[in-house]
Amino acid sequence: MRARISVAVAAMTGVALLAAGAIASVILTQEVTDRVNGDLVSDVAEFERLVDVGVDPGTGEAFASPAAAVRTALARIIPDPNEGTLGYLNGSLEWVSRDATLPLQDDPAFVEAVAPFTLASDLTYTSIDTDAATYHVAIAPVTTSPEGALVLGGDASGASDVAALVLAYDLDQELGLFLHAFEIYAIVAAIAWLVVSAAAWVIAGRLLRPIGTLAATASRIGRDDLTERIPVTGSDDVSAMTASVNGMLDRLEGAFRAQSDLLNDVSHELRTPITVVRGHLELMDEQDPQDAREVRDLSIGELDRMASLVADLLTLAKADRPDFVVARPTDVSDVVTATLEKATSLGERQWVLGERADAVVALDRDRITQALLQLAANAVKFSEPDSAITIGAVIDDADLRLWVQDQGIGIPPEDQARVFERFAQSKNHEREGSGLGLSIVTAIAHAHHGRVDVASTPGEGSTFTLVLPSSTAHPTVIGATE
Helices in 58-170 by DSSP H: which ranges? Predict the structure, then answer.
């Protein structure tokens, strides 16, 4: 990937530099050509004015012939660099300029090629290519009219003499200065291309280093060691990806740890009933019907406890699935009332219907009912017959609070946090059930993005509260009933 990025950057940079050079070359070549043509037009215009006036500025007398006008023009024109001037008479080279830096007379091919244009009846602007150079040329023939006046570009068929002023630029030399500048540009562009390519290689390496580290770390991480993390540096997209991968590794480590803890707890919890059943079966007197019945009843009880444990473990195993809860608009008051009716079969208690939040909240009715019944079952286990157990709900600060309150033995402060752990129970409680009930309640609350609170006083009772987020703003509260 580093090589592909570097090659792509180098290719785009090279194309951009070449395109810039090509476009600049076209534009500047056209500008040079236009300047040369403009200078030729300007020089011809000056010669035309001289012919129209018809007076030699040096003597103040009229030109005696076309040849005199051409000689005077050659003497007055100061050629630019790379410009040459010639004078023709009747189609033959007659005069050359001493001041011209471009010796046109030294190029026989040019002298021969331009001769026919000196006898033409019009001004001529043309381009002539020879082995020596490429010339942009202006030819201005001068003749004498029937009235005896000089005429620029007149009909030469009946004239006794035809003189012509020839102006030419060596376009190759004019473009040479520009081409030299482009040679410098090419050198600078090549150096810039190398610098950009090297910088692309270095920068791509720095940007992709976290990905390489990610791959190396991922190859080292195994099931037995999920503690290694990728260093996060900077604040770019790659750093954000690295942080996301670290977060994923945190979740995986937590999941594997929870799985390992669950397997250890399950193996411990299942080993006890199996050991109990096996021990009683080994010691059972097959000839004693009473002993056989007692062992059968004990085995069935242990098997029922194992079945309950397996069912609770399946519930907890599903807690991390996205479909563990399916939230739908639900009437909270109806959930509380229905749960109280179902809870009355759990034991002989004074079942009290507390406040009912008359509101519709998005939640999973079945899971919330399961959680409240689990709390109600716990309340029955750890409270005396005919004691009061209250189930209620209220909307408080945009939170939905559903609670189960009992008048049981309570939970010591040091045990109130650990009772939510798997297979954990208060030291004051005798071993009953699987010890997974409150873990299931907690899982249901977390799946609703909520939590479970407990308030308990030993000897007076406990209140377990499901605190769930709610968007209901103005609920109506119905009074408590029994």
Answer: 66-76, 108-114
